[in-house]
Amino acid sequence: MRLYEKPAHVLHDMLVNKEVTAVALTEDVLKRIDEVEGDVKAYLTITRDEALAQAKAVDEKIAKGETISFLEGIPGAIKDNICTKGIKTTCASKILENFVPPYDATAMTKIKAQNPVILGKVNMDEFAMGGSTENSAYHPTCNPWNTDCVPGGSSGGSAASVAAGTSIWALGSDTGGSIRQPASFCGVVGLKPTYGRVSRYGLVAYASSLDQIGPVTRDVTDCANILNIICGHDEMDSTSSEAEVPDFTKALVEDVKGLKIGLPKEYFVDGMDPEVEKTVRAAIEKYKELGAEIVDISLPHTKYAISAYYLIAPAEAATNLQRYDGVSYGERVESDDLVGMMTKTRTEKFGEEVKRRIVIGNYALSAGYYDAYYLKAMKVRTLVQQDYTEAFKKVDVIMAPTAPTPAFKIGEMISDPLQMYLQDACTVPLNLAGLPGMSIPCGYSASGMPIGLQIIGKALDEETIIRAAYTYEQSQNYHNEMAKLGGNN
């Protein structure tokens, strides 16, 4: 078994016990990148020399007998919409092709304080707009389980790198399912924290009232540990929660006896892949065996969530993306006059999906349609939030599929935006309500593609989600299985 196949907590113990060096671990993961990156295409920027230098510094620290933190010396990857000082942050867009941030995102500052090995920046849908990582301006990323399939999106590079062993852990962002859906498609663990738990300062904004940074990992233990690192109040983010951050690793307990699990009928809809429904229901049966109580619930406004989301998110995106005009930010396309320059810049440098959402957003916010569209969508958002509030009076967590299908083929949905948007049916409602949610692997389709179980919690109650996820994970073996890519497993 090679080092890249092991989760971070196992590798941490190996480093502490001097069973392996950080340099040897980093070299093994870099070798893995050399072996399979040509097939997976998870990365946009690889910082090889810097990674080896970071690993060497950790080894020197261990040699002196100093203690090391959880992520110290452990190679990871960062989604390319999280600002990294001195390293390109492109958002997978041509308009930010050469942008090198002069500062780190707050989440990045917290991660760097742990002295991990940063391998580079991973691919995504342009400005996080998409569910397949096909909307990257540079190249699509492939699913390590089957390179003919998408890895999900928009954090497809984060999930694919962890699944392929080209990173041990990764950071992603989730606006409407962008951590959870790729985690489901790639057979890894992905958590969207409660809105405000992790600072958005330095996360390039898509939809400011929905965006949230979170971890993508091999297993639940790594997820809890990384959550400990990145959570906390930040004065640089006015929406940052001031709630005390617990030690999430204390929730790594195998016990769901008496846990009330809500099963919303609206999440098991017509059109859902029968294999997904069967696999998720089997996982919920396992919870029953482990002592949990299953409660049927209803979230009646779920059917309006997608429509509301695809008005609110583009409206916020249209506003946030105004700054990319070739003057304030962004690569410039020269023209004879200012208006021509801005028009050419935005037309040539933004991809089709980004332009589509800017148009939708501007339309929804325009004077004659604001009340009919945007305002109505915000009212629906409130109803979705109220549904969850009522449901959580009866249950501790809610469970559902993460995505309605396993990973689909590259090119299969790209020409049908509506079908692509419907992929978010199970994930979007949480973002509207600001709630935490996690996807964990719970089985495979007949063709061998991973299927994810989504666990939804009350606001600021990531601990119950982690306990529920950990208990199930320890009763299974999915977290120890990796994509059989490149014949190296």
Automatic annotation (TrEMBL):
The keyword Protein biosynthesis applies. It is an enzyme of class 6 (ligase). Keywords: ATP-binding, Ligase, Nucleotide-binding, Protein biosynthesis, Transferase. Its EC number is 6.3.5.7. Pfam families: Amidase. PANTHER family: GLUTAMYL-TRNA(GLN) AMIDOTRANSFERASE SUBUNIT A, TRANSAMIDASE. This is Glutamyl-tRNA(Gln) amidotransferase subunit A. It comes from Selenomonas ruminis. The gene is gatA.
